[in-house]
Amino acid sequence: MQDTILAISGKPGLYRLISQGRGMLIVETVGADKKRLPAGARDRVTSLNDVSMYTNEDDKPLMEIFQSIADKENGQPTSIDYKKASKQELADFMASVLPDYDRDRVHDSDIKKLIQWYNILVNGGYTKFVDESEAAAEPAEAAE
User: Fold this and answer.
1) Contact at 8 Å (CB) between 35 and 41?
2) Separation between Cα atoms, residue 32 and residue 87, nearest integer Å
3) 131 vs 67: CA distance, rounded Å
4) Helix or strand run (H / E) with residue 115
5) Sign of torsion, CA 124 128 8 95?
6) What global pTM score does this model have?
7) Do 124 and 31 contact (CB within 8 A), yes or no?
């Protein structure tokens, strides 16, 4: 994914970094409306490239989990409605995309946020979450 996708604490949705100014970022909403707004120094901004989820061994980068969801859902929005899903449905969905996720440290709200963000990105036109060159390098390293 070439763009820098950001989550801003206290603001709904996801944002794409447009440019940087003095002490602020110019961001654009991911979605149809493409609304631009500033994110100041007081806003807690997090790049999705820096986010990972707990597994039983190492943490798994969020972009790799998004790619697993995209592979499972054929690049379409998820079939599960995160707002109405039961705890068991959320756990089953998470186990299908990340079988070794840490069931003690990954909460239902984390899974709901994951599904929500994935759907926002897919509806915004994002379908590739991991560079193919990076994905091709990983199996080669594992084979050695």
Assistant:
1) no
2) 31
3) 10
4) helix 108-123
5) positive
6) 0.86
7) yes
Instruction: Compute the distance between CA of residue 86 and CA of residue 89 in angstroms, rounded to an integer.
Output: 5
**Three-class HEC string of 9-41:** CCCCCCEEEEEEECCEEEEEECCCCCCEEEEEC
pLDDT digits (tens, 9 = 90+) for 104-129: 999 999 999 999 999 999 999 988 88
Beta-strand pair 60-61/52-53: antiparallel
pLDDT digits (tens, 9 = 90+) for 5-36: 999 998 999 999 999 988 899 999 998 788 99
Token pair of 141 as six digits: 């390293």
Q: Minimal CA–CA distance to 94: which of 127, 45, 129, 56?
A: 56
Tokens 């969905």 appear where?
93
Q: What is the 3-state secondary structure (H, E, C) of 73-110?
A: CCCCCCCCCCCCCCHHHHHHHHHHHCCCECCCCCCHHH
Distance, first Cα to last Cα, the chain: 27
